Amino acid sequence: MSDEHHSSHHVNYLTIFFVLCGCTALSVAFDVLHFAKPVTMVLVLAVACAKAMCVMMYFMHLKFEGNWKFVLLAPTTILAIGLPLALFPDIGSSYYTPTAPQVGVWADEIAEYEQHDAAEQAEKQ
Amino acid sequence: MSHSPKAPALRMGIPIPNSKLGMWLFLGTEIMFFTAFIGSYIVLRLGSRGWPTDYNDTHINVLLGGVNTFVLIVSSYCVVVAHEAMALKNFARARQFLWVTLILAFVFLGIKGVEYKGKIDHDILPGRIPETASQAVKKVSNQLEELVRERFSRYIDAGVVSYPQPGDILNVANLIREIPNGERPNELTTEQFEQWKTSAAADYALFLKWQDLHEHVVANVSLEYPAAPAGFLEARTKLKAGEKPPEITLDETRKRLNEMKANEQYGALVSAHVFDPHPIVYGNIFASTYFIMTGFHAIHVIVGMILFIIVLKQGSALNEKWTDWVENSGLYWHFVDLVWIFLFPMLYII
User: Fold this and answer.
1) B168 pLDDT more than 60
2) What single string gives the DSSP state of each residue in B198-210?
3) I need a labelling partner for B55 at 20 to 30 A (CA). Which of A43, A60, B11, B176 fits?
């Protein structure tokens, strides 16, 4: 079965390899060039997605597989996207204080946090 | 026609080997496994008011991360070439490329080890990072206490000091203070006893320094005042009604620590055991997410190495029966590469 599978297509893996290396260099270049943070974030994640597509399509041969790949990967993709979206409203909306309540004595931390907030408010006024 | 005796056997299921289907189903669960970590990282980071990104805070080395990305890409290329060679029945070539893949996996783990060591050396570990000035001051005191207890346990272990409750640091300190004036225990030679006497003087001096800092930390009183009880009473007499004594600050703790590090008797010990106080806001959540993501990724690398070692153990006996194995191991390895493709920008660049 593997033989049949292979004879049906030919991929120049070396080209894919060089594309992946180029993308990695591009990611590092975006870090060195010091763009605005959101710009860097979008650029490097776009490059990561491009690299992931190259690996999945050619190295993992998904481009040449039948439609079963959609049936198999659709549920996991939906759940993978759904998890962060489900967590976001509770945790992603500035839930944690900068004084990290997971460490140390609560009373001290709360007092310090209140001082920090009071100082911030005083600055605003 | 369908009832003709020459009709092909009815084929059920999808047109791939069962082992490959199994691997893809497994990779489906793996995607969700890593999404739990990566998704949590994204959500926690977005939910935090700040995040450590400076090299001095995180000791994240972009160059090492970049090299590791390159290493995994080369290894992914090698494994796909090995699979192609297996399909073409060129088993010698397949083995060569599988060997290169295995060696590159070792290189990846070696570089990861160097990165982990950098973090361990600077105590960038979950739950050990002070996030505020007061936590940094407490950490100095706690680390000095650990050092003092470690030094004191030497006397108990060697039988130079005997006390029923070795954890009672105050009473053990009093016994150590008396060593230079005391009599030599029979089991020690004169030379050994002289060494213990010198050591005892240094360790007791270190104990006094820690005790002083500890009392100020517990009472949250500035180091400018002498220690309890007289010093704190003096501090209070100078205050007006309703005022509190000035609190201990990070700067004065840092100054005190530097004085201790410059001390001839115990300075080297303090330098080796006590980290410079350096608060990192959100450092612990950063360290937790960093280690859980890269740690589980490293475990996957090790599993991939085991898969390659099993096939490489066949040596020159490698044959077409192993083609599916190599293909499935390759799929797994590409997935490991895929995870790193996202971890690299998220942890090292953004």
Assistant:
1) yes
2) HHHHHHHHHHHHH
3) A43
Q: What is the pLDDT of residues B36-68, one digit of tens each?
A: 999 889 888 887 877 888 888 888 888 899 999
| A42 contacts on B by Cβ (under 8 Å) | none
Distance CA B220, CA B141 (A): 12
Q: Least CB-CB distance to A40: which of B132, B334, B350?
A: B350
Burial category of B331 from C-beta neighbours within 10 Å (exposed 0-12, middle 13-18, buried 19 and up) = buried
User: How far is B264 from chain A, CA to nearest CA, in Å?
Assistant: 33
Among A86, A84, A63, A82, CA closest to A74: A82
ipTM given for this complex: 0.76
Distances in Å between the alpha carbon of B23 and those of B20, B232, B301? 5, 68, 16
Number of H helices, E strands in chain A: 5, 0
Give me the residue label for tokens 């080796």.
Answer: B272
Instruction: Kindly report, residue by residue over B293-342, the tens digit of the pLDDT.
Output: 999 999 999 999 999 999 999 999 999 999 999 999 999 999 999 999 99
